[in-house]
Amino acid sequence: MFKNLNKISKKEKTLVLIKPDGVQRGLIGEIIQRYERSGLKLIGLKMVLPSEELVERHYSVDPDWKTKAGEKSLNSYRSKGLEPPSQNPEELGEQVLNNLKKYLTSGPIIALVFQGMNAVQVIRKITGGTEPLTSDVGTIRGDFTIDSYEVADVDGRAVRNLIHASSSVWEAEKEISVWFQPEELINYRLVNEAILYDVNLDGILE
Ligand code: GDP
Ligand code: MG
Question: I need a labelling partner for 203 at 20 to 30 A (CA). Which of 13, 71, 106, 136 fits?
Fold first, then answer.
């Protein structure tokens, strides 16, 4: 199937959270810079000390998230030949959520909204895979930290991977509404956008 090019929005939005370990490691500037230089536009930014209730709301946006997270965890145990603490994905997902609540309420985090063409996919690419040990070199999670599922699971805590990034346009829309009021997102033009999006570049040469 061909992608319908008319459907590619230049105003696609995505949510990024710099988790407490990113703030503690002094990586706020580095992380924002990596996203910013992609060409995407930063349209919302704030520091938040989230409550457990807010974290729960964030991860309840996708009603299947718990089961999916549990299945991912089960597969990771099985692939290592280890016995999971439970065979029930929902139960394991619940554990991951409880650990995430402790992790994300442990200190301030930075909430960001980026906008632009394929924003969700571009931000996920720059962020890298969930487990820092196996995420690609050149990605934020691959370059700036070292955690693994194995160590995190043995210690009974969430994988510390510096960042949350929305994984679909639908999820992004819901997640943004958990963290930002509509008036906190700013509509503005960047001069850079002409070189990214304009069909006609006749205005450059004098
Ligand atoms: P993401 O979209 O790449 O952040 O991954 P998920 O949405 O599946 O999981 C959310 C977060 O939960 C991850 O970023 C990790 O911090 C943590 N996490 C997910 N799965 C596991 C797991 O199996 N074990 C542990 N310890 N933490 C996990
Ligand atoms: Mg996710």
Answer: 13
Answer yes or no: 58 catalytic: no
17 lines ligand 1 (CB under 6 A): no
State the residue for tokens 């999670």.
141
CA of 199 to the centre of ligand 1 (A): 40
Q: Does a structural domain hold residue 1?
A: no
User: What domain range is 126 assigned to?
Assistant: 19-181
Q: Is 52 exposed, middle or buried (0-12, 13-18, 19+ CB in 10 A)?
A: middle
* Residue 10, domain member (yes or no): no
198: in domain: no
CATH of the domain at 138: 3.30.70.141
Q: What's 111's DSSP letter?
A: E
